[in-house]
Each structure stands twice: as structure tokens, then as C-alpha cells.
Amino acid sequence: MRKSIATVSVSGTLTEKLAAIAAAGFDGVELFENDLLTCPLPPEEVRLRAADLGLSIELYQPFRDFEAMPSPDLRRAERKFRVMERLGADTLLVCSNVSPQAVDDDELAASQLRLLAERAAEHGIRIAYEALAWGRHVNEYLHAWRIVRLADHPNLGTCLDSFHILSRGSDPIGIEAIPGEKIFFLQLADAPLLAMDVLQWSRHYRCFPGQGTFDLAGLVGHALKAGYEGPLSLEVFNDHFRQADAGRTSHDGMRSLIALEQALRGADHPAEPTGFAFAELAGPVGGVLTALGFTRTGAHPDEPVELWEQGEARLLVDTTAADPSLLAVGLETPDQAAATEHAASLLSPTMEAPDGTRHSFPDAAWRDGFAPSLPAPGDITHIDHVALTQPWHHFDGATLFYRTVLGLRPQESLELPDPYGLLRSKAMSSADGRVRVVLNLAQVGAESMPLQHVALATDDLLATACRLRAEHPELLLPIPCNYYDDLDADPSLRELGVLHDRDEHGEFLHLYTVTVGRVFFEIVQRIGGYRGYGAVNAPVRLAVQHLRWANDLAARHQGASA
Ligand SMILES: O=C(O)c1ccc(O)c(O)c1
Ligand SMILES: [Mg+2]
């Protein structure tokens, strides 16, 4: 299907937007009036610029507050038609009236829209009438369609917008009753589920399909069944997108539409990950790994990379870097070729995540080069999850990457106050829970590098904590006593500095190590079917990490001035 995007969805001036949109491979744009008004080029030049880039101008918008008025403003409409002729745009979006002067009268609305369509026809222009979710009298897509049917003019059709339909909880099945040729345009936006005024929700929180919680594939399926043949067009109003890099946003938009088309074909992910093959760290972390019970079981013959193992937990360590960090994650899959090809189909041949971590589906022979010896037995059984901090303006893009390219499913999303902001986090996992990734949103103004961590699983956390406390107390992140005063759990947790959580499925015990470079480790024990990540305790961790960071900084200052 043809792919289009509204110019309002990306940042920049009109010419910057067009260049970024074209580079991402779109076929056309919805041109927003504001973008034209602020552009120094005459409409003819904009038309040429778009054509040179291979973009058609699919739609011009918005034309507001026209229908069901005491007297409709046709002169204003004529001015739009003339601009559209110069642009070479043949469809004008009219959104349902929000003016207090609008009259609740479908017959009047239909007769005035009919008049508008007659005038538009003289210019070869079509009118696409859209119900805004907050329209004064018309705010349901089937209501807009009834008015279009009543007006009965070939140059008048309806524009469907997934946000307006799904945000109101309307059932999209009704789309199938609209003749396909009367659906002049289809706008797509997803959104996170928020309990707020629908206008604010629409203007600030829309996102690309797959980044929110709406069932876009279901809605588009109904439109295709109705016989819709126009473009799939992204129309996103989003405070972050307005500031983010236009090229990256356009690229994400294209990825979301490719994934949507795959979902429509029933081809989600051909080979979902089934486990962590390894996590790859950089820097001098051998000391910490040894303390945690890992054995260095091999070294790469040609590269400065070591393999460290314990149970089924495998860590690669690139020893050349000075500062410890988490570089990459290798994922097991039942079909390496299919998984890699799938990533490429979603414009991610290198599988680099928006936060810079590299992901891969290594083939089964990846360990052969390491000539590994057997690891000593230890408490750690496997990698439970990795947690990656995302730059604030890449959070939605990261969600899309992990969901589509890696085939993970969104789990809980949380917002928790911490000492210096609000921690926003989203967990994603494979269907069987063997691969789990937690995305954390970097705090604006966070003073240190965004932290990443690897969570390692054990079957007996209290035993692991006892051992670490006896052998490497300096390695454990100390937990404030006050935390335990409010905790209804085993008193030994306090002595061992272990944190606790429970959900309806089970319980969770965990502890953290201190940070090395920008990484730390977590050791976790899931009891029963606990599904979470102990996120309620993250603010405690962040507070302690911040204090330690500030103390280190002060000590270094003192050292420098001494
Ligand atoms: O927020 C708005 O006003 C607005 C305008 C045009 C649209 O197509 C839309 O979905 C919303
Ligand atoms: Mg719209």
C-alpha cells in the first residue's frame, strides 16, 4: 500500500521535513497548512520540491469549523482551493466543527458540505470529512459518514482517523459498512492508554502504530475489507516528535507501517527469541564477575574478547575499553536466518537499538571460537533480564524497535517518583518470558551517564546474598534501614540488604551491586510466577546510587584540590 505521513508528525521547516520523509521512503505527505504558511517558497515551488523527492501531496489540511454554521464561509474555502491547485493537491481535509456557533443539525451540515463539494469539484478537488473526537456535534466516525451519505456528492467522502475512533472506544467494525470509495483517506496514530481529556491526549501523546496500545492492524483490516485503496497515512501530534530528529522520526514511522503491513498479513515475527545467548560488556569487569562467581572460560583467538560463564549465564567481555558498559546482547532464536532477515525487512539490518546497544541473533557456532573450558559451579543460573536506559526522545522509537525488530511483547509500564525526577519504565518480554528487557527513560538533567544493568537469576537469593556479604561486602549496594521498617517480609532481608516485591503471581527477591563505569548487576530470584521486575524498589536504588555518585564526585574534588 502507498505510505504517507503528515508533515506535522516530524520536526523542522517544511523543506527539512520533506527531505527527511522522502529519505525514509514514503510515497506522499499530508501537508499541514501551518507548514506551508511558515515556508518561504511559493506553493508551486513546494510542489516541485516534493515531486523531485518523489513525494505526492496526498492531502491538504486542516479546514476547520465550516459545516453546520448559520452562514458557511465559502470565500475562505475558495482561497484554500486556489492554494491547493498551485500545490497540485486534490484532497482537502475538513474536520468536524468545534465552534460554539455550530448547529446540531445533520441536514444543515450535509447541505453545506454538499455545497462545498460542488465548489471543490469545479477545481477537481475532493473533500474528506473527518469527525474529531471532540467535535461539537459530530465526534463519531459513523456520524460523519451519515452526513456524507446524506450530502450524497461524488466529491465528498469521509476521512477516518484511528485516534478519533479508538480514543472514544468506538467499535471500528462499523467501518466495513462504509463503501470503500467513500473512504477518501485513512489516518493512523496509536497512543498510550491515558485517562485524560481527549483533545489533550490527541495533541500531545499520539504516537506511531506499535508504540501505544491501540489495535491499529484490526482497524486497518476493517478499512481494507470495506475496499479502501488510498494510502496508509501517519498523523501524529507528539511533543517529543516535534523536537526529535526528523530523519529518525521518519525512519521510525516507516518501520511502524512496515510492521503494520506484516501484522495485516498475519506475519508478526517469524522466529521470536527464545533466550539470551549472551550479554556483551566492555571494560575491566573481570574482578566483579569473579566475585559474582563467574569463570573466565575462554578467550577469542583473534579479538580482545573473553567469555565468562556461570550456569546458563554467558557474558562476553571486550577488554579494550576503559569504562565498563553494556555493549550488545545476543539472542537465541529457533531460526537465525529468518530472524535476521526479519530485522532487515524492518530497516534494521545491523540491529542497533536507538540507545546504541547492538543486538544480534548469533548462530549456534558463536561459542566455538572461544574453545571454552567448563565453568565452576555457582549460584547464578541464567540472565533474567537486561535493563537499558533510553534517551528521553528515543523512548517511543526504542519501544518500536524491541517490539518489531526483536519480536518482544510490551508488559507493564510504570512511572515512579525518585529523588530527582520521575522514573518511566517499560518492560518487554518474549512470550515465554525467557527474554526480558526493561527500558528506562533517562532523566532530563541526569548528572551521570545513563546506567545499564544485567540482572542475573538465582534459585536461592538469600544464600547468594550471604555469600557475597561474607566475601565481598564492598560489592553490594547498601539499602537504607528505613526501607525495611515498612516491609512486611522475612527479617533476614534487612540483615542481608535484600529487596522484596510481590505481585498476584508470586514474590521477588533481589539485590544490586555497586556501579562500575555505567553498568551494575542485579541478582534476582523469582518465586512462584512473579512477572515483574521489582520496579517499586527502583527509586530506593536510584537514591542510593545518586548519593554514592555525589560522594565519589566530592572525594575526587578533594583529591584534586589536595
Ligand atoms: O487536533 C486537531 O485539530 C486535528 C486536526 C486535523 C486532524 O486530522 C486531526 O486528527 C486533529
Ligand atoms: Mg486526523
TrEMBL record:
Its cofactor is a divalent metal cation. It comes from the Bacteria. Residues 382-514 form the VOC domain. Mg(2+) binds at H385, H453, E522. InterPro entries: DSD, Glyas_Bleomycin-R_OHBP_Dase, Glyas_Fos-R_dOase_dom, IolE/XylAMocC-like, VOC_core, Xyl_isomerase-like_sf, Xyl_isomerase-like_TIM-brl. It catalyses: 3-dehydroshikimate = 3,4-dihydroxybenzoate + H2O. This is 3-dehydroshikimate dehydratase. It comes from Nonomuraea dietziae.
